[in-house]
Design goal:
Length: 335
């Protein structure tokens, strides 16, 4: 396992991060314990969680699992999504952030988390209020670094500007969705992170299981996240996604690599990505994702995988620049 700098935080993380969303949900505590042990044996030191995963049970189980080697692991959690039905039980207000971090630390049975991610945008709360609240947590030592997930690049840059102007702790890590059928992060988020030195932990490298080799145009397993979870079914519901999944499976088989392994390795190959976040429901599923660290992806294979899905358009409408068309002479004019 390789260990990499997480942006400019000074924290070093394994080149794969394990996402614990299944803990206490699809995986009971016994299965969670087995997967945690698998990860530690493979060299993973970074575990991603959230206060809303399994209504808090994921944090509780993770806290028990890391109790014996807390100082050897890197923990992340999140704040922002609803944790109850009350009027103050969601968002990025000072109150909800304060209540949420105390509850997370209690469930994780720790005095700090290495990274706290804001999990969503909160248009009802001024960004200055959110950033001051997060800065307070850093100053108190309850959070060592700040992260942002599910924000657009312009929103992140705006927050970085506010933090710089007000002398506040700033976002140092981004957690965007990124996989072969969800490539929007390539347009602005990943280049922004490279330019500004942000660490990047990407989520959903398998597209909710779409790229695991179990799905094709006319093939659907009877169980799985895309079958059982309406949010994931909608996120990956386009017919074109299943065409990509089928062609990807064929390419993986031709290359002698398990589809799940290749999907994770493809994400990890992007130069902006510090570590993909892998997940699983059971130890058998986890094996194929862990195997990605042993795959040395050639540039040819990487580009063949890229061609299976549409490259997102550039951030401007100057598509000729993406296609390598150059300004050639005086008869042509810049517009």
């Amino acid at each position: 396992m390789e260990y990499r700098a997480l942006g400019r935080t000074g924290i070093r993380v394994s080149s794969l991060c394990f996402g614990t969303m299944s803990f206490g949900d699809a995986a009971d505590e016994a299965a969670s314990r087995l997967m945690y042990a698998q990860c530690r044996e493979a060299g993973i030191n970074t575990f991603d969680c959230a206060n809303v995963y399994a209504a808090g049970r994921s944090e509780e189980i993770l806290g028990r699992l890391v109790a014996g080697d807390r100082d050897d692991v890197v923990l992340t959690t999140k704040v922002g999504f609803p944790t109850g039905d009350g009027p103050n039980d969601s968002g990025l207000s000072a109150r909800h952030i304060a209540v949420s971090i105390e509850a997370s630390l209690r469930r994780l049975d720790t005095d700090r988390v290495e990274v706290l991610f804001v999990h969503t945008v909160d248009p009802a709360t001024p960004i200055e209020t959110t950033l001051r609240s997060l800065d307070r947590l850093v100053r108190e030592g309850k959070v060592l670094a700040l992260g942002v997930s599910n924000w657009a690049a312009w929103q992140i840059v705006r927050a970085l500007g506010v933090s710089a102007c007000e002398g506040l702790a700033s976002f140092a890590v981004a957690q965007p969705m990124y996989n072969l059928v969800k490539r929007q992060a390539e347009v602005e988020i990943l280049p922004m992170c490279q330019a500004l030195g942000l660490g990047v932990l990407t989520y959903s490298p398998l597209g909710g299981g779409l790229l695991s080799g179990k799905y094709a145009r006319s093939e659907r397993p009877e169980t799985g996240r895309l079958v059982e979870n309406s949010m994931y079914a909608a996120r990956y519901g386009e017919a074109a996604h299943y065409v990509v999944a089928e062609e990807f499976r064929t390419l993986a088989q031709e290359s002698g690599v398990a589809p799940a392994t290749l999907a994770v390795a493809w994400v990890a190959h992007h130069p902006a990505v510090t570590a993909p976040i892998i997940g699983a429901r059971n130890p058998d599923q986890l094996k194929e994702s862990l195997a990605a660290v042993r795959v040395s992806l050639s540039q040819d294979l990487y580009e063949r995988v890229c061609r299976l899905s549409s490259t997102p358009p550039p951030a401007t409408d100057r598509t000729e620049e993406r296609d390598g068309v150059q300004y050639k002479g005086s008869k042509e004019r810049y517009k």
